[in-house]
Amino acid sequence: ENFKPAQVLDSLKAPSNHLAPNRKLHFSIAKDDNVHFEIDSLTGDLYLSRELDYETDSHFLLQVIIKDYNNPPKNSTVFLSIDVEDKNDHSPYFQDDFVVIGIEENVPVGTLVYTFNAKDGDGSFLNSKIEYSLEMSNMGENPFLIHPLYGTLTTASPLDREINRSVILTVFAEDQAINVTDRRLSSLAVKIVILDVNDNSPSFVSSPLSYVMEDVEVGFLVHHIIAKDPDEGRNAQVTYHILSGNENKAFVLDKITGLLTTAQFLDHEVQERYSLTVIALDDGSPALSATQVLTIIVLDANDETPVFLKQLYETAVHENRDPGEFVIRVEAVDRDAGLNSLLHYEILPGAGYEKFKMNSESGELITAASLDRETQEVFSIKGSPSRSSTAQLYLTVLDENDHSPLFAKTQYQISVTEDLEEGSAIMDLSASDEDAGLNGEVMYSLIDDTYGAFAVDSVTGSIIATKALDRETKSQYTFRAVASDCSTHFPRSTTVSVVVHIDDVNDNDPIFLQNPIRVFVPAETAVNETVATVRAEDVDLGSNGAITFNLMVAETVFQIDVKTGDIILREPLDSKDFSTQLVVTASDQGVAPRTATAVVVIFTEEQEEVISFSCSLYEASVPENSAAGGH
């Protein structure tokens, strides 16, 4: 295709055995085929009239017309096939001038990063066949590999954004012309940006040790905690937190800045060292962290005063002992040195302090008077070494059993109903003893006969009914209760009278004094005359024992007085052989009245009524579990 125009490509000749002497021929190319070629009409030499381009036309078929002007004239046509040979006149090219590629740093080796696709305008195979190569602009090991035939760019080694944030590569595309010197080359600049993943934990760069004076103000900056994370963006944003060691809330940590400040006053004598476990946490997903144990040393300031070995001393001494009794020895220390550490003890003024003396040098405390526990059991004494601190002394006077138990009342009285359930508590005795310990611990018991009706809980003093009560049998119980202390030596006791009144409940039916009652009434008895009187008794009290009488079936001949039980004739008897039976009820007046019945047989002198049952045998069926009182 690089053949220059106006040069002879070839010559068309007629075969020699067909040529006569002086024979004239004329050569021409068909009009449609003479764009790139021309032919000498006389000689048949074929010329290139314009440059050829293999990539446009790689083959031509020319129709050459040969005219013979001899006699007789004769024309012939020759088809000329021309193949254009490719010349490597095109360089490979990329569609882009510059490529930026992003890839995460944690991809495995062999991951496809990008596929390059260069083009070559040449037509033949080798002239347009492209091989790729790679060159890294900056020094160091190239972490990428390109396939020479397919143009695929892959990772050749692990990536680390924290070492190389980006890589600048030059990708070459070269055709494979047979003649190496004819090969053509093009290149493409490629920037590969290594994208961050959260693959690095924060690391502390600040010191794990800090010092602070104990007398600093609240809010004082103690330490600046710093942790670095080589990742970027949110993966590198670090926040700080205290995991442990700050249970007393002595410090506050700003989670953003890492500034650690005091949240309360420090005291070297209380705690001279803090060990804070601090975590630095990035904002990646998942978040990564690192911990550091930060040791804070609280430095001492000259603020020490003498301090008692105990803030509170407790001891006991017997009552009724002579003055001079040893009580206790108190002791204080001063961390200072020299004269400032020499201590002088004294008792501060207060209630009862005059009953004690303090040795100013040794700190020994003795009694200055005889003590009485029941007058004052506890003494609270303050002792002080000179210049500063105080200690509290609680002195307990030990008890002797010099008091008897005392009941809260001089006599206990209570009323209970006779239907009280067995085991029910009716009252609580209460006695106290001013003594202490076993000497003041009270136990209860009963003396005198309660007829088995009552018992007392020895510890609580609760009196309990131990059997069913019956007012009609016994309406009042009187007995004595005893309160005794539990002293192991010479126990003391007190008695009190207990009266229990038994109140009535309606638990008895009325009882007829006679049943049945037979009454003889003369036929000539006058109207409104009392012919008989029924009597009944109820052992209950009050309305529970008040009885009224009624006829179960209303009568016109007889009437009963509801209060007296008198049966009165209201109509004359109609015959001398008159007889009848009256059913009389006696009912008490309780809330749930109880009733009894009696039969009154009335007959004249001439006729004596014989009482008899209507049947010689009565039979009935009663279901089991029937309620009481059912008919």
Automatic annotation (TrEMBL):
One of its GO terms (molecular function) is calcium ion binding. InterPro entries: Cadherin-domain_protein, Cadherin-like_dom, Cadherin-like_sf, Cadherin_CS. Keywords: Calcium, Cell adhesion, Glycoprotein, Membrane, Repeat, Transmembrane, Transmembrane helix. Residues 1-94, 103-204, 212-308, 309-407, 408-512, 513-625 form the Cadherin domain. Its main location: membrane. GO terms for cellular component: cell-cell junction; plasma membrane. The keyword Transmembrane helix applies. The keyword Repeat applies. It is found in: Membrane. PROSITE patterns: CADHERIN_1 (PS00232), CADHERIN_2 (PS50268). One of its GO terms (biological process) is establishment or maintenance of cell polarity. This is PCD23 protein. The lineage of its organism: Eukaryota, Metazoa, Chordata, Craniata, Vertebrata.
